[in-house]
């Protein structure tokens, strides 16, 4: 069993490295390159472990690797993997292959409603539009509880509007608002199952793995320069960033282990802390690596420039002070007192 698992793991790693290497070598049409690459990644997506199956860290390493190459690609791939894990957790087996996305943003002026198997309304902040085959989207039912719908995006009466997406960073995610007009859909799981399942927070940590991969890659540019042209100040910045990356990496290991040992628990507190820690690390990397390397890589290296532009936008999937406030509330709820004591 372990031998078979190692073979699968090795094959995935080789395939992933090949796909990402080819992506980086292709500097012609970024849109076509992204579309071709996500289709290649889908081939072995089913072999990526779900959180809590004993190989959560391997899943996050894959997401970090994709994030270290291109965050637009990571956004699509993470959403696809998250959709598959949600369906698995809710005991739903997809019958068709294709690219999935999770669209859970709320606040539209025309909220989604669902009656007699048909959905109508508007969903905002949908990435991968025009490319995704199946959308897994949320809406509020008659009791104002969150409910999941599956929509086959290859139907008529679906309008896509890219007019509101003006981002420079993450500009290639094909994010848009979607209007549905009496479109066939089906519900998945019970009301509030999407929010209340343990995997809601397990998936949130996967997003942080994408952030971390990009931050680590930016530091690698500094590492490579220090190897060829060591300088005291550059080495100081490298030491500072290495300290942040090493400690954040170890926390990923800890959280993954906790999820694998107790998969039925949400681990909301430690995952919120992980996301806050990754955000702090990434913000420091963006500032300090820029100081260490100057303007050149921002202007002359397309991989560095793209990661540096995309990462601040993707990081805003965190809610900053609102998330940190919730960490404080959760800490106060612990009966054992200050959990950070040695």
UniProtKB/TrEMBL annotation:
Gene3D superfamilies: Butyryl-CoA Dehydrogenase, subunit A, domain 2. InterPro entries: Acyl-CoA_Oxase/DH_mid-dom_sf (IPR046373), AcylCo_DH-like_C (IPR036250), AcylCoA_DH/oxidase_NM_dom_sf (IPR009100). This is Acyl-CoA/acyl-ACP dehydrogenase. It comes from Acinetobacter terrestris.
């Amino acid at each position: 069993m372990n031998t078979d698992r190692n073979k699968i793991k090795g094959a995935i790693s080789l395939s992933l490295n090949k796909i990402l290497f080819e992506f980086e070598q292709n500097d012609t049409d970024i849109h076509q390159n992204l579309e071709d690459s996500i289709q290649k990644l889908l081939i072995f997506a089913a072999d990526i472990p779900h959180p809590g199956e004993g190989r959560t860290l391997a899943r996050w390493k894959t997401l970090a690797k994709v994030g270290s190459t291109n965050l637009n690609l990571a956004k699509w791939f993470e959403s696809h993997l998250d959709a598959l894990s949600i369906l698995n957790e809710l005991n739903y087996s997809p019958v068709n292959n294709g690219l999935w996305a999770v669209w859970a943003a709320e606040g539209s002026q025309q909220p989604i409603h669902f009656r007699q198997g048909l959905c109508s309304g508007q969903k905002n902040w949908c990435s991968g539009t025009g490319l995704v085959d199946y959308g897994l989207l949320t809406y509020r039912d008659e009791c104002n509880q969150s409910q999941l719908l599956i929509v086959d995006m290859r139907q008529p009466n679906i309008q896509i509007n890219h007019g509101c997406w003006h981002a420079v960073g993450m500009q290639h995610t094909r994010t848009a608002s979607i209007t549905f007009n009496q479109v066939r859909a089906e519900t998945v799981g019970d009301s509030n199952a999407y929010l209340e399942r343990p995997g809601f927070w397990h998936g949130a940590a996967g997003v942080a793995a994408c952030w971390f991969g990009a931050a680590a890659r930016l530091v690698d540019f500094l590492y490579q320069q220090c190897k060829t042209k060591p300088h005291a100040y550059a080495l100081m910045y490298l030491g500072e960033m290495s300290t942040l990356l090493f400690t954040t990496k170890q926390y990923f290991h800890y959280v993954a282990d906790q999820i694998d040992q107790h998969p039925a628990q949400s681990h909301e507190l430690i995952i919120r802390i992980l996301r806050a820690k990754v955000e702090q690390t990434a913000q420091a990397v963006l500032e300090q690596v820029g100081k260490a390397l100057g303007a050149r890589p921002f202007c002359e290296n397309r991989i560095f420039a793209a990661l540096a532009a995309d990462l601040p936008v993707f990081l805003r999937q965190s809610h900053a002070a609102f998330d940190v406030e919730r960490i404080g509330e959760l800490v106060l709820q612990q009966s054992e007192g200050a959990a950070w004591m040695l």
